[in-house]
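Proteins fold reproducibly. Next comes an illustrative record:
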Amino acid sequence: MRIASLLAGLAALALASAAAAQIAPRKVPDKALRGTYAPAPFPGAYISGTLVQMAPGVRIVTPENRTVLPAQVPPDTPVRYELDPQGRVRMIWILTAEEARKR
């Protein structure tokens, strides 16, 4: 009985690790603008030192594809971002050091 449960556990672990390896890398659009992010009282933020308005439902995504709140991002964080048709920031991708070095 113990061997069967051990084998079942190993099989579940193998499936879980295979599923985790299939997570697609994030895709930052080439048209996304570059800047540095600093939080401001919501719905504002500073992008490259300019106060901008965040769109309702704005998403901020870490390099690990996790969504974070605007206040959780440290000042002067390199980002790429997209604007909505009204000129508000609708999506922000926090860049890794390697991504930030690329121009």
Notes: Residues 2-21 form the longest helix (20 residues).
